[in-house]
Task: inverse folding
């Protein structure tokens, strides 16, 4: 079974016009297109990424299950609130996913600075909409270890759902990479040993070793590798050597790091680097492709990365 633990569905009303303006600027520069073309041709493709499109892309890539989510950017003062409230955004995600009950699973995207509202929303999301956990994007402007957020973590433990938090540098202005440092999630792992924490993007290029070091001593921390498409494409030897090193790292406490590492795609955001289908094929082919660099990988290790570890993390029955 192949499981992506990170993907998106998008509706125009899930972010503010100002937020899309930042995206349009980025796309325009990165793709060398005028802003008019981005608004006319590129953004409508982004807005069309609903559950139907997500499942179609999964089928093309032979992904069996996907964990999908929105992003709560609303508390960032540079972009401001979306047209929909954060509750409406998450409800839309849940309703979309409910059309594909064996394929799509959801996280509740929320900024913990919403305080009591966030706690209530997460409770509703899990108990009423069957959401599987919480999604943070701290780059909106907060450190996840703020004691003001602890009631939210206590609620997550009570509901037995993980906190999944972005840990990678970001090219999208005005969001800030310093808040993505995984060290702030180490605080949660230390204070709340019963809280499951997922490091989204496994630290990407800059924080990988920090993530590994944290995972070695914190058995309640997990990670997923979406975002590494860029490394796989540009410097495959570096990515494969890192992966081998990670697979060989034992943990002081809990299961080995490799048994807590999962696959993810971040569809549709990284399609321009490597499309989801090629990303799945790239990972499947590691035991063969790594030979070129003198590295050995077992089929079982790759199977666990692609699905088995996520089955356990998300309590799926195989
Ligand atoms: Zn994402």
Result:
């Amino acid at each position: 079974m192949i499981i992506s633990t990170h993907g998106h569905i998008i509706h125009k009303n899930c972010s503010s016009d100002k937020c899309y303006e930042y995206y349009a600027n980025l796309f325009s520069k990165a793709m060398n297109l005028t802003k008019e073309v981005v608004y006319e041709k590129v953004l409508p493709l982004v807005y069309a990424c609903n559950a139907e499109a997500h499942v179609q892309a999964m089928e093309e890539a032979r992904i069996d299950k996907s964990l999908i989510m929105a992003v709560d950017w609303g508390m960032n003062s540079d972009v401001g609130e979306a047209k929909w409230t954060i509750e409406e955004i998450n409800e839309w995600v849940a309703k979309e996913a409910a059309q594909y009950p064996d394929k799509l699973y959801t996280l509740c995207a929320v900024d913990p600075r919403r305080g009591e509202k966030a706690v209530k929303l997460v409770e509703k999301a899990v108990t009423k909409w069957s959401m599987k956990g919480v999604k943070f994007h701290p780059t909106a402007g907060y450190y996840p270890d703020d004691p003001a957020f602890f009631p939210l973590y206590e609620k997550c433990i009570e509901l037995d759902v993980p906190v999944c938090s972005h840990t990678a540098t970001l090219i999208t202005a005005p969001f800030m990479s310093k808040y993505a440092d995984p060290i702030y999630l180490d605080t949660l792992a230390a204070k709340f040993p019963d809280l499951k924490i997922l490091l989204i993007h496994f630290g990407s290029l800059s924080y990988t070793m920090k993530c590994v070091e944290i995972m070695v001593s914190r058995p309640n921390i997990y990670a997923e590798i979406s975002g590494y498409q860029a490394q796989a494409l540009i410097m495959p030897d570096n990515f494969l050597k890192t992966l081998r090193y990670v697979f060989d790292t034992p943990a002081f406490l809990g299961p080995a790091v490799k048994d807590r590492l999962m696959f993810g795609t971040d569809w549709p955001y990284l399609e321009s680097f490597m499309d989801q289908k090629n990303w799945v094929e790239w990972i499947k082919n590691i035991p063969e492709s790594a030979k070129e660099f003198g590295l050995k990988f077992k089929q079982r290790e790759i199977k666990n990365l692609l699905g088995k570890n996520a089955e356990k993390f998300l309590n799926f029955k195989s």
